[in-house]
Amino acid sequence: MSVQAFRLVCASGKEHLPAGIQIECLECSGHDLYIGTSDGCIHHLLLVEENGTESAELPLGQQLDYPNTSFTTTRQNQRQLGVKKPICELRAASALSRLLVLCDNTISLLCSDSFEPVPGTKIRGVLSFTLNENPVSDDPFSVEVCLISSKRRTVQIFSVGQERVQIVREVATPEQPCSLAADGYYLCLALSSRYVILNYNTGHCQDLFPYPSEQKRPIIKRISRQEFLLAGPGGLGMFATVAGISQRAPVHWSENVIGAAVSFPYVLALDEEFITVHSILDQQQKQSLPFKEGVILQDFEGRVIVATTNGIYVLVPLPLEKQIQDLLSNQRVEEALVLAKGARRNIPKERFQVMYRRILQQAGFIQFAQLQFLEAKELFRTSHLDIRELISLYPLLLPSSSGFIRTHPPLHEYADLNQLTRGDQEKVSKCKRFLMSYLSEIRSTEVANGYQQDVDTALLKLYAEANHESLLDLLVSDNACEVGDSAAWLEKHKKIVNGDLEDNTRPDLFEYVVDFLTFSKDQQLVWQYVDWVLQKSEQIGVQIFTKRSLDEQLQNSFCPDKIVSHLCKYRQALLLFLEHLVMEKMIQKEKYHTHLAVLYLEEILRLKSMDSSDHTELEDLRLRFQKLLRQSDLYRVLFLIDKIKGTDMHMEQAILHGKLEEHDQALDILVHHLKDFAAAESYCVWNSEGREAFYRKRLFQLLLSSYLNPSTPDNTLIVAAVDLLNNHPKEFDAASVLHLLPEEWSVQLLSPFLSGAMREHVHALRVSQMAVGLAKAENIIYKKEKLNMKEKPVVLSEKKLCHVCRKPFGEPVFARLPNGHIVHTYCATNQHVNSSIDHVPSQSKRT
Amino acid sequence: MIKKPDVKVVLLGDMNVGKTSLLHRYMDRKFQDTVSTVGGAFYLKQWRSYNISIWDTAGREQFHGLGSMYCRSASAIILTYDVSSKQSLMELEDRFLGLTDTASEDCLFAVVGNKIDLTDDYEGEEESEGERPRTCSTSKVRKQVYLEDAIALYKRIMKYKMVDENHAPAAEKMCFETSAKTGHNVDVLFESVFNMVIPLIVKKKANGPEDTINLSQESTEKHTKTGCC
Ligand SMILES: Nc1nc2c(ncn2[C@@H]2O[C@H](COP(=O)(O)OP(=O)(O)OP(=O)(O)O)[C@@H](O)[C@H]2O)c(=O)[nH]1
Ligand SMILES: [Mg+2]
C-alpha cells in the first residue's frame, strides 16, 4: 500500500465492554468515551492513550518505527434511559459538563458526570441534530444545536446552556431534510433529492447537487471552515463550500460508504470491507485498511474512531514527519512535498521550517538521483542547501582543506556518485555536467557565500577534467580556488595539455595556463607549476618570468637570482631569461652578461656539433651572440676568448679582440680568416663609434694595412683595399696613406679616393679658413667694444668723488682705472700697493 | 496550502468528446489513454501572474447533476463536442447549457469541436500509431459538424444568456476546431480563453475583495431563479 498514514488500534476488547452490547452511537471528548446502545443505555469509559517510549526521544524525522500507541479503557458510569429505544446520537458539551442525548425523537440534557437529567431542558420532536463547531455566537456558556425537526420540512437552531435550552431560529426547507452539518450561519442539508446549503440567518438556500437521499444514505461531513464533504453520485466524496463551489476534485469512494471522518490532511471513509484514506491535498487514495462489520466512523476533536456494533478501534495517525519520510523513501517526492506543505498548520512554525527545509533537500537529492536536474536544482535552491552537500557526492571535488562534514541524519543514502549511478559512466558524466553548470551559475551568488573556495575549487576540477573551455576563464577571473589542493587538478590538467592538445577546442590552452601563471600574484602557485610548464615548453614557459611586471620581479620571490638559479636546468629558458634581463631590461651586472655569453657560446657549439642542426637557428643564435658581444662592455672578455679559441667562430673572436682594443688581431681575423671585408669595415665603424675622428682613422688605416700586407699576395685584398679607399676617402689621412700604397697603382685606379681625399682636404682647408676668418671677425668685435669703453671722455667736476677715498678732487689731476673709475693719483698708487683693494671700487659702485 | 485560484474555467460536454484529452494535451503536452472521468478533475495553471483553475467535468449522465456546482462562478466555460458526432453538439444545447446558469454573470463561452483529425477534410500533423476512435478506425469519417453549426450554436447561447451580440466576443473568435490527438489548435484555444478571462479577473479585483460578501449578494439576486425547482 502506498502510505502508512494510520494504524488501527483496538481500544476495547470485548472484556472492557458490557456483554451483549449493541453500539449505536459514540462520543469522545478528551479521555471520556461515551457509548450509546441500541437498548437505550449510555456507558461512560475512560480511554487512556499510552505511548511507547522509544519513539518520543528520537529527533525529528527519525522515528524509525511507529509509535507504540496502545489504549486502556476503564469503565465508569452507565445509565439506562427510561425507554428501551436506541440512543441515536450523543454529544458532549464539555465546557458545560453536559451531555446531549437523542433518543426516541427527544434530546435530553444530562449532567456529564452523574448522567442525571437537567430538568426542563428536553427538546422534543427531533429527527437528528448536530452541534455547530463554528457558531457565530461566541458565548462560552452555550452551545448551538442544529436539528431536523419532526415537523415537516423544518430545521431549528437552539441555544443550549447549562440549565436551559432556547430556540433561536426555525427555518423551512424546500424538501424534507434527513441529515445535516453546520458551520457559522450555514447548514449543509441532505434533502430528499439533493444537497443544499441553507443560510439560517437569511433563509437563502443554495443548491449543491442532486442526490437521492431516500435510496442512498447521504453523508455530510464538515471538513474545515465553510467547507463540507458530501457523499455524491457514483461513490464520490464531493467537496463543497458554503458558497456552493467545489474547490477540490472529488475523492473516489466505493458506492456504499457508511461514514466519513477527517484527520487532516486526510479524509477517511468506511464501507463494508475497508477503511480508505484519501488526501485532502491531492485527492488521491493513500491507504486502505481492511475492516469488516464497521458501523461508525467518526472523528472527535481530531481523533478518528471506528466501531463495530461491539468493538471500538482508534485510527492512530502516524506522525506526519514519518509519513513524509516514508513517501520520500519511496521516491514519491510530489506527494511528500504536498503533505509537508499541508502539515504547516499542524506543526509549530519554527519546527516546521526546519523540517520543511530538510524535506525539500531530501526531495532534491531524490530528484537528483533520478537525474531530474531541473527539479533538483529548484529544490536545492529553495531549501538553501549547503552546496557542499552536493559537491561532497562527487569524489575528490571538495578541497582537502575543506572541513565539510555531511549533516546528520544524512539527506540521502548515497556514499558518492559511483554508488548513486551504480557505476554508469554516462550518468556520472551527466551528473558532472549538471554540477558544472550549477556551480558556475551560483559561484558568484550568495548561495556560494562562505564556501567560495569549495565551490571554485570543485568547479575548477570539473572543468579541468572535462577539458572545458571555461576553465581558463575561471582561472583568469577572480577566483577562490584552493591552491594547495590543485595537485589532483594538475594531474588531470596535465593529461589534457600533454595529451590531445590538437583536438582540444582551445589549442591555445597551454598559453592560457602560462598567461594565468604570469599574472598570478600567488608566488607559491607559480613556483609549484613552473617546472611543469617549463617541461612542456621552455620557450613559452619562460614568459611566466619575462612577461611578469618589473615591480614583482623585484620582490623577493621573483628576484632574478632566484629565477636564474631555478632555471639552471632549463638551458633554453635560462638563455631567454638572461637575454631578457640583459638586452631588454638593461641590467648592468657582469655575471648576467658573462653567463649569457657563455650560454650563447655553449648553445652555438651544441648546435654546431649536431649535423642535422638547423642553420637558420644557428645563424640567429650567432647574431644574437655577436650583438651581445658588441653592445655589452661588462662580460669577461679574456674568459670568453679563452673559451672561444680553437673554434671557428672568427667573427666572435674578432669582436672580442676589438673589445680588448687588439684591433690588428681582430682585423687580421676578419680580413685573412674570414675574408669578410664588409664585416671588417663595419668593425671599424662600430669600434670607433663615440670616439674622436682620429681613432677611426687609425682603425681604417689598420684595415688598409692589413689589406696591403698580406702574408700571401692576394688580388682580392688589393681590390678590397682599393674599394676601401675609394669608398671611404674621408676616413683616411691621405698624406700618410699615400706612403703605404704600392708605387705601381695608377692614379686612375685611385681617382675616386684621390678626388675624394682632395675634396675632403680642400673642404677641410676651406672650413679652417672660414673658421680663421670668423675668429678674426669675432676678435675685431671685441676690440671695438674695448675701444668704445676706452674712448669715453672723462669730465672732472667738483661733484665727482674719488672712487677709492670718496673725497672730492682738489686739483685737476686724476688717475683712471682700467674699469673707467677715476681716482686721486695718490689713491691710485695706494691701490697698486695694496692689490686687495682692487675689487673695492666695484663694490662701492653698487651702492 | 493550496494557492487560491483567481479564476475558474470549466470544460463541459458529452462523455467521450475528449475534454480530458484536451486538458492532458495542453497541460502535459501529450496525448495518452484516458478513462472516462469520474466526477471531475482539477488543474491549476499559472498564467501570467494569475492562477487559473481548470475543471474537467465528467460527461457521463450519472454525474450530470454535479455540473451546476462545478460551473458556479466560472468565468469561462468551454463547451466541447466531437466533430464526428452531431449528437454531441446537440447535447451541448439540450443538456449542458442549462448547467451554466450558475456561472458568473460575465462568463465567457467557447464552443470547441474536437477530434478534427478524424475527419476527411483534415490533413495536418499526421497521426500514425494505432488509435481508438469511436468510429471506424482505419479510414477517416465524414465531418458531421461544421464550424458554421458551432457558430450558430454560439449565437443561440448568447441569445439564451440574453447578451447583446455587440458586447460579446465575436462568434468566430469563440468557436474552435481542435485535435487533442495531434495538438492542433489546442494551445490557441486555451490561450485565447485565458487571455480573454484576465480582464475579468482584473475587473473582479477592482471591485474589492469578493469572497463571501459578494457571493451572498449574487446569490440573493438569483434566488428567484433557482428556488423554483
Ligand atoms: N482521434 C481522436 N481521438 C480523440 C481525440 N480526443 C480524444 N480522443 C479519444 O476519445 C476518447 C475519449 O476521450 P476523453 O478525453 O476521455 O473524453 P472525455 O470528454 O473526457 O470523456 P468523459 O470524461 O467521459 O466525459 C478517448 O479514447 C480518446 O483517446 C482527438 O482529438 N482525436
Ligand atoms: Mg474525461
From TrEMBL, chain A:
Highest rank taxon of the organism: Eukaryota
Species this chain originates from: Pyxicephalus adspersus
Subcellular location(s) per record: Cytoplasm
Domain CNH positions: 20-304
InterPro entries: Clathrin_H-chain/VPS_repeat (IPR000547), CNH_dom (IPR001180), Vam6/VPS39/TRAP1 (IPR032914), VPS39/TGF_beta_rcpt-assoc_1 (IPR019452), VPS39/TGFA1_Znf (IPR019453)
GO BP term (any one): autophagy
Transport recorded as keyword: yes
Protein name in UniProt: CNH domain-containing protein
UniProtKB/TrEMBL annotation, chain B:
Record has Ligase as a keyword: no
Pfam families: Ras
EC number(s) reported in the record: 3.6.5.2
Reactions accelerated catalytically: GTP + H2O = GDP + phosphate + H(+)
Membrane topology: Lipid-anchor
Keywords, comma-separated and alphabetical: Cytoplasmic vesicle, Golgi apparatus, GTP-binding, Hydrolase, Lipoprotein, Magnesium, Membrane, Metal-binding, Nucleotide-binding, Prenylation, Protein transport, Transport
Uppermost EC category: hydrolase
UniProt-recorded Gene Ontology molecular function terms: G protein activity; GTP binding; metal ion binding
A cellular-component GO term for this protein: phagocytic vesicle membrane
Gene3D superfamilies given in the database record: P-loop containing nucleotide triphosphate hydrolases
Annotated GO biological process: protein transport
Localisation: Cytoplasmic vesicle membrane; Cytoplasmic vesicle, Phagosome membrane; Golgi apparatus
Alphabetical list of InterPro entries matching this protein: P-loop_NTPase, Rab20, Small_GTP-bd, Small_GTPase
Key word Membrane present: yes
Family that this chain belongs to: Belongs to the small GTPase superfamily. Rab family.
Protein name per its UniProtKB record: Ras-related protein Rab-20
Organism: Pyxicephalus adspersus (African bullfrog)
